[in-house]
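Standup notes
- HV: blocked on the assembly model, inputs below
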Amino acid sequence: MADKPRRLNLNQKYQLMTRGLDWETTYQSMDDVFPYDKYEGIKIKDWDKWQDPFRLTMDAYWKYQAEKERKLYAILDSFAQNNSQLNISDARYMNAVKIWMQGVTPLEYAAFRGYAMLGRGFRGAGARVACQFQSIDEMRHYQTQMHAFSHYNKFFNGFRQYSRIRDRAWYLSIPKSYFEDAVTAGPFELITAISFSFEYVLTNLLFMPFVSGAAYNGDMATTTFGFSAQSDESRHMTLGLEVIKFMLEQHEDNLPIVQRWLDKWFWRGYRLLGLVGTMMDYMLPKKVMSWRQAWEIYWEESGMALFNDLSRYGLRPPKYHEVATKEKYRITHEFWSTIYQFSHATALYTWIPTNEELDWFSAEYGELFDTVYRPRYEYWAELHKNGERFFQKRLPVVCNVCQIPIFHTMPDDPLMNCCLVTEYKGTKHQMCSQGCKDIFDHEPEKYCQAYIPPQQIYQGNCGGATLEAYKEWLHIKEEETGEYYGSEDHRMWEEWKAQAAGTAVASA
Amino acid sequence: MAVKFVGDSYDFPCANRQENYGDDINIYVVWDHHLIYCAPNAYRLPPGMKFRDFLEQVFAPDYPQHPDTAGVDWDQGVWQLENEPWQPDLDKSFTENGIAHNSFIRVTTPGLEGMHGVGN
């Protein structure tokens, strides 16, 4: 037999196709070619020490991803052809998917842009290649989510103009500003913010409950997308851990910078996840896990164990994590109370939980729920019964950092709003917490530019200075907003269920 | 503390500076222990407005579905400005009371401390 040409193994191929194609520039200085990877103060002595967390080449990547796409789209097709939107637990569930489409899916696109910048910005070839793959992953997640959700757009309100309201709506400025904060930082802060703080530390709180919640509530479209993204996510998490270790092993001066980024991005991520926790607690008719329980498992146990491991690099757990833990009994109820009273200015519906759901909350959240939030909901339910559905008409004060209306209460007093003030260039700024205030005070030059919806509305930049003018500017229609019971989604859902029951009776 | 940046300078005006509001100011007010209204309210108003007019004609009507609103007497209020104890003169203007652009005001009303014994 003739000798076949020797095939390269994956590792050899990877070395040749990535680092093997890299070179030290001579006509131009490396600092001119890579102008952004030093100004943050991170010192890298030897980029060759970067341990590539996943050794992928382009041909292998295409092969894996194409295989996943084939499966995903086959399932999405059958989902659509079988009218599987009728198999979800209840039309209220759709609001969780709306929040995802309006708030999270655009983050995938923002991440695609961010990682494309990183894929050019680092002078180490290993880090660049890893970021380029992640950039393509993020674009794929953006597309597959949009395709998975587009079927729902034919049957439910709230999906049709996600990109416009993503840019304009007050509640979507929360996720939007989070990513814009990250991509306007330097490359090392961006990768710490997203790859480590978000993907490694906090993503379990996002993906695990959401995807299992989707499955439990009969949403096979979202579940299938979730599984399709999972192997990418684990690659992203590995990159997050690698980048932290790499920075800390390269130079001791990097430690305080990295620690401050972890403090900042833990807190920003935690504030953002309050929205996800609320979706989990309130928008899943069939409950999977409460926010409190998820926090205990994924932060208090796994997160703290991770920081224990990282203590050998000199890192400590992020500042104010104990405040976040104190808030686990209240944050989702405060958030739901807020969305409930402002839902007439969202492309979402809200409602008072059923009695069984209130009992579930009592069991999961105990005394604070029974003394504060349950009587509040019962009061609102009574108002609604009397034809006076509770809505707030006045614009709220919004935190200048996390951009959430300042519904938050004091760390040790859940009955008292917390609103902190700091002054910069003669202008006062309001923050929801010491965590957000520290972030502002460290870089006031950056956060004083923040685009805060109520401020912009009052300045006349959002269609007019009233809520009605603002809603018109958002292009939000009355029928896709406000109270769920009696809404268009609710009426359609009841009709479809009645039809299905009628058909079942007729054919029996 | 300062932001790190590329280039020669990094200097931008505050997005919420007073000059973006013409002759008006923004003020932020919360009636503590009335948490069914979730957050402090934001207002754009003329600085010469009398504080009592604001409270009676603008602020109290923003709590229409709270049973405490009908009986509220702002003269009994206990006040804070920028989270510090403070005694306003209700018959004077915002400016005369030291209320400036983006001031944050808290008020509690002893005896009217919300519902359910928890400040709802």
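- HV (later): unblocked. Helices of chain B lie at 51-59. Chain B touches chain A through 48 residues (CB under 8 Å).
- Next: hand off to the docking folks.
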